[in-house]
Amino acid sequence: MTVSIVLGRGRDGADVPLDLTELLATRLLVQGNSGSGKSHLLRRLLEQTASLVQQAIIDPEGDFVTLAEKYGHLVIDAAEQTEATLRAAGERARIHRASVILNLESVDAEQQLRAAGSFLNGLFEAPREHWYPVLVVVDEAQLFAPVAGGDTSDEARRLSLGAMTNLMCRGRKRGLAGIIATQRLAKLAKNVAAEASNFLMGRTFLDIDMARAADLLGMERRAAEAFRDLGRGQFMALGPALSRRPLLVSIGAVETASHATGPQLTPFEPAAAEEKRDLIRDLILEPVETFAPRPRERRAPPPDLLAQLDAFASEQRPPPAREAVSAGEADPATLWRLIADVAAEPGADYRPAATLFQDFQLRARIEGLGRDVLDMTRFRMLLATVRSGIGEERAGSEEWRAAEAIAARLPEDVQGLALLLARAALDGLACPDDEALARAYATHSPGRARRQLAYLEEQQVIVLREDGAARRVAFVGLGWRTA
Questions:
Q1: Considering the entire predicted model, what is its pTM?
Q2: How far apart are alpha carbons 232 and 106 in whole angstroms?
Q3: Which residues pair with 15 in a beta bridge?
Q4: pLDDT in tens, 59-105
Q5: What is the distance, to the nearest Å, from the Cα of residue 429 to the centroid of all Cα atoms in its chain?
Q6: Boundaries of CATH 3.40.50.300 in the chain?
Q7: Topology (CATH) of 4-257
Q8: DSSP run (H or E) holding 139
Q9: Is 72 left (phi over 0), alpha (psi -120 to 50) or beta?
Q10: In DSSP terms, which residues pair with 58 in a beta bridge?
């Protein structure tokens, strides 16, 4: 299934879409000098996807905290937390599916590296059952994955660089989709930048950065000077989630704005030279007042961040365009149709269940269903039921519920295989062949799938009889047999 957002417009004025489903699997690199519109681009992307996918934002300048006012992100101030709490916060953010902004504005460079590294490691190390898709946006990525040492300690730099490398190199299987933005490609570690498959290249002037950008986009070196002519908010796009050929895109409008503003001209009122001379002379001749140091204010204790994350699910969220349907109110026919659509996707038989669950959740959100409409366990069982071919009407019968109860006691990887055999035995059909068993077990190896029949027999779920090419299966306790 393809879920797209509109990133901006092309040269011809047509909408330029960004495939969110593809982006989750292929990552994104944004490059542009200061003032090229990187923050505007990231804000557009975050606003358009806020209701579709969980977000985690590493914000070194406090530019994105305003998203919390409209979209309900939880803002984490790094100055009020320790490395241990930030690591735990990253893990709990995934568990509770909370969109969070790590605000690093009020800490120094050393603490920025430590805070970002600890938080990213928490996201990365979340338990497998909580590997839901997350867009992880890192602004000014050259600070957290530098190509060379700077004023910070080696320990902090290794912590941050290791976390960024994990995000871009190993994060995909854990559902983490890295989106990194940098002012200079030459200052960004190559093993971090090289893992991105999608690129948005903005205005840049240095030859080394233009040459690298041209190489990434597959452009000729002589065409690299075109990056100097890009306007603010204009980017060259390339990648499976954007375009198969370099495409100029002008980023669309945003609904929120940063608290920070750029320098603006202020009317200048010239004064007479005599007035300036008198003012400066008086200032020199006047005695300098000495000020006593202001007593240091006692800061309030930091808020309990982990308690905030634990309470996230019960907080009142901003109402969506239409009220989401909860688990108890969902129409079973709608759930069946959505899962059947997921199962019918090309190659779905061999994809991990967690990936298919992400696809289902995107479809469910589009239908107006809530996040809790199905948990992972129930989704696996319904998916296996749909794949067995039993049919929607018979899936609610008492006899099929008995088969599901047997399958629920088995490991998750063999539940689909057990229900496929149960359906064949229930209707007195021939035992599924090796190819069908392999698809049910999500493997291309028929031998590996056949070995699971012996395992099911060891668990006293089936009785297996094989006579040459003939194979018969009977379900223990149900009296069902294949032909």
A1: 0.60
A2: 28
A3: 9
A4: 998 889 999 888 889 999 998 888 888 998 999 899 888 899 999 99
A5: 44
A6: 4-257
A7: Rossmann fold (3.40.50)
A8: none
A9: left
A10: 102, 138
